[in-house]
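Fold this sequence, please.
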Amino acid sequence: MRIAIDIRSLLEPCMSGIGEYSYNVLKRILEADKENQFNLFYNIRHSVKTKPPKFDYPNVKTLGYQYPNRWLNLSLRYFGRPRLEKLSGDPDLMWFPNFGFMNFNIKVPYVLTVHDLSFERYPEFFTPAHRLWHKLIDCRRMARGAAKIIAVSENTKNDLIELYGISNDKIDVIYEGVGEEYFKETEKLSHSTNSGQENKEIKDDANMRKVVGKYDLPEEFILFLGTIEPRKNIEAIIRAFDKVCNTPQAPSLKLILAGGKGWNNEQIYDIYKQAKHRDKIKFIGYVDKEDKPALYSLASLFVFPSIYEGFGLPPLEAMACGTAVIASNASSLPEVVEDAGLLVDPYNVNELAEAMRVMLGDDKLRQDFIEKGREQVKKFLWRSCADRTLEVINRVGGLF
């Protein structure tokens, strides 16, 4: 069977969550499947220098094009040309790891992964340009046209049923995974309570020292890692941290906000400028993938009070690195975190501040959550995600 896969998300200069998902699943599928023929296709502007990852297998072919993106999408939407089947090598089946192309006249069956419907639930978190983009793509129509949908959580599945009228039996829930590199940090370090003098093992590790120097990290800090945008509820983190700084639990505590800039983030920086303890708050920007495990491991606490997540990978990555987690009780996060993290109302700043204070002030409680987190994250592995995804693709291919 010839399977075409859209790999455009792998060409982003700073790989997003969609790119991480696509790469981790695709890498493991190609390692395991030597029977099917895989056509990896993409379109990219001529000026973009990023190249797709190279998968050196005899049953893998990469097809790249340099059409102007705006022209290509408009032509696909209004004229149905050029046909995606032709661009992707006349496959028997296609897999789209996310919404994307403005083309609904595909003649071959396709599997679609849906990560979330945040743009439907919370359009106010998106710029007018992004809202227009989602409208032009017509995600509802693309979802309804799929032979099978992979939802990354039960929460996303429920949104598809409620908002798009997709039938229950058309959707398979396949959880995302945590990379092996995060578990390696847990194996390497005892990481007991990760504060003060108890941090010696971490400081003595060469990679940890490199990350501390690269991002100029303080001795003790609370960490957030994610895109700097309103949906992540970073304003609440800043306000809650301001309250915690007034308590005995935080004499030298800092707040590290890590991640690339998203859209509509001006108010986040305004709140930061108004914070009483802004001198203890630091934005460190996009974190290189290879530095993330060390960053998580160095943190005293990881906070992720997001308003809406289709899955929510960062809390699991933090757990794999042996760091206690506070997360939102909204959307998919309770489903993913369960009782391995302290769940709070994302709209209640006082509750978030109290959770930070309690977790930092009670070493036994924090250690209990660290141990629960280490067990919880074992349920989410990329190998399992890739195997189940390939199983769905082969099952759909066998029906046509």
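The radius of gyration is 22 Å. The first strand starts at residue 2 and ends at 6.
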